[in-house]
Amino acid sequence: MPRISAPSIAEHVAQQEAAILGAAARLFAERGVGGTDIGDIAKEVGLARSSLYRYFPDKQHILIRWFERELMPVLARSDEILRSEGTVPERLAAWLDYQLDEMAKPEHDILLRLAEEAAAGSPDVQKVIADGHVTMYRSLGALVDEALEQHRRKGAKRRDAVVVTRLLGGLVAAAGRAILDGADERAVRAEAHRSLRAVLETA
């Protein structure tokens, strides 16, 4: 049994897994997924290659766990916002602001780049990312459907909530990319909120 530096074996394992994920993320960002192998990660974290295998059987499992670690808090917070108290327009506006906050972070650009590279070579990574989007859009779609139903009761024609939800997803992606590309963040946010109101006819 290797020497542990935590109060329990479970905590030691959690610490080691976190260190491995952190080291892998740094190397992926510097060298890309394809340019990093399991030996590089072991060396970065200060483990023998054989010791690293106690925690992850291969690089793909490290990638999957890393993406899950990055995505789960965002999905949980997004769902919390969409289910919070407040009017439908208020919750959607808060959701949009949170998405833009996340997408404006420099590390989000790294996440997108690594997601594209990793997903191209791994169906399992593709599934993790796809499942995250499904979870996100399920909650968003429910609130969009509620917003459109409110308009329908006021006499508006019936609209396709799935299409509108996808449009809002595209709006967030485009606004986030604009911010990362150097556009004025305040201006992008203002336009994104105007577009949100226009798409949902809440203006």
Please explain how this structure is put together:
With 203 residues, the protein is an all-alpha fold. The chain folds into two domains: 1-57, Homeodomain-like (Arc Repressor Mutant, subunit A, Orthogonal Bundle); 64-200, Tetracycline Repressor, domain 2. Helix content is 78%, strand content 0%. The protein contains nine helices and no strands. α4 (59-82) runs parallel beside α7 (123-153) and α8 (161-180) packs antiparallel against α9. It is elongated. The model has no long low-confidence stretch (mean pLDDT 86).
The value of Rg in angstroms is: 21 Å
Q: How is the CATH topology of the largest domain named?
A: Tetracycline Repressor, domain 2
Q: H/E element string?
A: HHHHHHHHH
pLDDT averaged residue by residue: 86
CATH superfamily of the largest domain: Tetracycline Repressor, domain 2
Low-confidence stretches: none
**Topology, number of strands:** 0
Report how far apart the termini are: 64 Å
Total number of domains: 2
Query: Percent of residues in beta strands?
Result: under 5%
**Class of secondary structure makeup:** mainly alpha
Q: Main β-sheet, in a few words?
A: none
CATH architecture annotation of the largest domain: Orthogonal Bundle
Gross geometry: elongated
**Helix-residue proportion:** over 70%
The CATH class of the largest domain: Mainly Alpha
